[in-house]
Amino acid sequence: MGELKWYVVKAVSGQEKKVKSYLENEITRRGITDSIPQILIPSEKVYEMRNGKKYQRERNFFPGYVLINADLSHGEVMPMILNIPGVLGFLSTENGPNKKPVPLRISEVNRILGKVDDVNETGATLNASFIVGESVKVMDGPFNGFTGTVEEVFEERKKLNVMVKIFGRNTPIELNYMQVEKVE
Fold it and tell me: DSSP characters for 37-87?
């Protein structure tokens, strides 16, 4: 048996999950789980605020690509991958008569897998940006329902300093992105 390496397979954008599902079914049907032990679609959970409600969705890091840990020395593995509906081919191939796929470097794999692991540990991120002077409504916490003005934005920490009027006095409070919603 050859060596397991990571390859990038191009898929029809938006059909990455279908491709992964088809691949997993075909691998189990043929009994070649040793040759393809892992298939990944690197993604992250993203929260969005719409109409005062928090929605969670998954966003792909690399739309149109699926990562496969495979041993391509096994004769039927590569043709099986290429014949899956939605698969467009391998990302990079060598020039020449056999056109073998080029595996990812270990450093690239670690970076991608590290990014996926980081997201799993930290949970989710909010897909929003705020500007100083913008009006926001507090949606969560002890100041729920208050409206204020953004004074400072800490992009790296996903936090804001918001000036809120409490009992007729301006009071600065620090909130994270998840606790506020833009006021239109």
Answer: -EEE--EEEEEEEETTEEEEEEEESSTTEEEEEE-TTSTTHHHHHHTSTTE
List Cα–Cα distances, 97 to 91, 93, 139, in angstroms.
17, 11, 61
- Domains, the chain, with CATH or none: 5-126 (3.30.70.940), 135-182 (2.30.30.30)
The pLDDT tens digits along the chain (184 residues) read 578 899 999 999 889 999 999 999 999 999 888 889 999 988 877 777 777 777 777 888 888 999 999 998 878 888 899 999 999 988 877 665 567 888 888 888 887 777 655 555 444 555 567 889 999 988 877 788 889 999 998 887 788 899 998 888 888 899 888 888 888 7
Read off the pTM.
Answer: 0.60
